[in-house]
Write a structure and sequence with these properties.
The chain is 36% helix and 35% strand. The protein contains four helices and five strands; from the N terminus they run βαααββαββ. 25% of the residues are buried.
């Protein structure tokens, strides 16, 4: 059963300017592993985190750095959740989270489906 759906779209150049103006955003929004990525990939991960929050129905109990977007060996993007965020997701009865990312021109988008425990 689908518990929630979220989608987000990020303008990559605008996101890059935000990072340049406020360098501490890297520490506030991304895990240490994510901080090593190029701005285009960071924009997609930001979109993924925003889409996850939307799929969860809000940000209560969710912390940005508890959400890491990783890749399986196949290249498929997946969430790695830790801390309070992992606890919040489990408490909401979510057993699986599906993530799709895409880049085109100057846009990065993410789509998330949160699935309940059967």
């Amino acid at each position: 059963m689908i518990v929630g759906i979220g989608v987000d779209l990020v303008d990559v150049p605008r996101f890059e300017r935000s990072l340049e103006r406020t360098p501490r955003l890297l520490e506030r929004l991304f895990s240490p592993a994510e901080r090593m990525l190029k701005p285009r990939s960071l924009a997609a991960r930001y979109a993924a985190k925003e889409a996850l929050i939307k799929a969860l129905g809000g940000s209560e109990g969710v912390h940005w750095t508890d959400i890491e977007v990783a890749s399986e060996a196949s290249g498929r993007p997946v969430f790695s959740l830790t801390g309070d965020t992992a606890d919040t997701v489990a408490a909401r009865g979510i057993g699986a989270i599906h993530l799709s990312l895409s880049h085109d021109a100057n846009l990065a988008t993410a789509y998330v489906v949160a699935e309940g425990v059967a």
